[in-house]
Amino acid sequence: MSKVEKYFSDLGLKAHILNALADLGYEKPSPIQSACIPHLLAGRDVLGMAQTGSGKTAAFSLPLLNNINPELAVPQMLVLAPTRELAVQVGDACTDFAKHIKGVNIVSLYGGQRYDLQLRALRYGPQVVVGTPGRLLDHLKRGTLNLSKLNGLVLDEADEMLRMGFIEDVENILSKIPAKHQTALFSATMPEVIRRITRRFMNNPYEVRIQSSIKNCPDISQCYWIVQGIRKNEALARFLEAEDFDAAIIFVRTKNATLEVAEALEKNGYNSAALNGDMNQNLREQTLDRFKNGRLDILIATDVAARGLDVDRISLVVNYDIPLDYESYVHRIGRTGRAGRAGRALLFVENRERRLLRNIERMTKLTIKEVKLPTAEILSSRRLAKFADKVQNQLESNDLNMYRALLAKLQPAAEELDMETLAAALLKMAQGERPLILPQVPNNKVPNNIKRRILRRNLIDRSRGSRR
DNA sequence: AAAAAAT
């Protein structure tokens, strides 16, 4: 393309879409948007690949919504997503984009939500359906959803939707839509094995791959820490204390671990909660809402939250358990550095997981910087600074007089004491269970005799494994 | 090898 598109109004979108964009404060399309929108408007299949946070949702939603016939009260556009929360988010985005198109209804259909709500929404004859595969198939079987007039199909997080476990459901849904339809596949990652499969689903697609560059790469500074000396949950508390963050998301490997880590953080006084696929859907949505609107600072999640979620408060991602594949890493850290903000990503690596770290570095073509555990000095000075802030706040409050009176009553009991000694005693009491002067971090070095013992144990384990 | 996705 020789012409460089500058504004949404240059892309061929109708006025009502442009008005919605203006309301939302969107001016200029991102590279993936300006590359894809004209082709999708023209009805062509598109395979869109661009890094996280680059505006893929709008890239497929805007042109497909633009081409909807509002007079026809049947599903014309369907978006499939790999998690329920993502289905909700994409549905909400479409509702925003379509708010000036008269007569267009949008519904999100996903598991765990009451049927009566979904059935009522379906009776309005929505032109746009966003959903997760299981519940969509359920509606198709019950005959409460009819996709026989569908024009546009989108697989959001396409590589995930075409993986084992999902692809069967996706193919099943595809068998219920007209053979002649437009397909859009979007993702930040596209492993070669899956890329080959995409050909089965597309007809002469226009392929867009937006390479990361200084200009369009999200600003995420990445580092790792080799687990050493102390347990991961203690290390997490230390890192969090040393870090300035708005909201943080901690990724763990298992659903159980979300609960364990959440509990440990709660004990440390953090405002945190777990998110995993075993929780009931109301609680899942409520937790995510609290996280979005700032009533929750830390979310501890499985990969249910790895893809697509757009929460611009997130300034820190911690990979508490290293992900087993590099795609998961890319999506996880992509939860930060959104909407032009900067983000930090910290990765915990156990010694035996170094291979996974090297793999991530090789695939992302990045060198991730090693960091050390925040020292006792750093933490002490931060605690002291926070404490000083609190004291300052008290000094500025105007209810201190009654405590002055109290001070006078305290004085006879400590007749020999000067005010400074008294202040020191009160300070000692006030610090409570979080000492303002921390003991030194335990020595990171593992003694040699212990090392030999670990080595021997590993060798025994391995020989046992090979005999089986 | 875990998690996700209908009940």
What does this protein look like?
A motif (Q motif) lies at residues 6-34. GO terms for molecular function: ATP binding; ATP hydrolysis activity; RNA helicase activity; RNA strand annealing activity. It is a single chain. The chain is an alpha/beta fold. The chain folds into 3 domains: 8-209, P-loop containing nucleotide triphosphate hydrolases (Rossmann fold); 217-374, Rossmann fold; 419-457, no CATH class. 44% of the residues lie in helices and 15% in strands. The chain is built from 18 helices and 14 strands. It has helices at residues 15-24, 31-41, 56-66, 84-97, 115-123, 133-142, 158-161, 167-174, 192-201, 232-242, 255-267, 281-292, 326-333, 354-364, 376-396, 401-410, 419-430, 448-467; strands at residues 46-49, 77-80, 106-109, 128-131, 152-156, 182-187, 206-209, 219-226, 247-251, 272-275, 298-301, 314-319, 342-349, 369-370. It has a 7-stranded parallel beta sheet, with helices on both faces. Strands 10-11-9-12-13-8-14 form a 7-stranded parallel beta sheet. Helix 2 packs parallel to helix 3 (56-66) and helix 3 (56-66) crosses helix 4. The longest helix is centred in the C-terminal third of the chain and has 21 residues, at 376-396. It starts with 14 loop residues before the first helix and ends with a helix. The structure holds one DNA strand of 7 nucleotides.
Give a topology summary.
Layout: H1 15-24, H2 31-41, E1 46-49, H3 56-66, E2 77-80, H4 84-97, E3 106-109, H5 115-123, E4 128-131, H6 133-142, E5 152-156, H7 158-161, H8 167-174, E6 182-187, H9 192-201, E7 206-209, E8 219-226, H10 232-242, E9 247-251, H11 255-267, E10 272-275, H12 281-292, E11 298-301, E12 314-319, H13 326-333, E13 342-349, H14 354-364, E14 369-370, H15 376-396, H16 401-410, H17 419-430, H18 448-467
Parallel strand pairs: 1-6, 1-7, 2-4, 2-5, 3-4, 5-6, 8-13, 8-14, 9-11, 9-12, 10-11, 12-13
The chain binds one DNA strand of 7 nucleotides through residues 82-84, 110-112, 132-138, 141, 160, 165-166, 169, 253-255, 276-277, 302-304, 306, 323-324, 328.
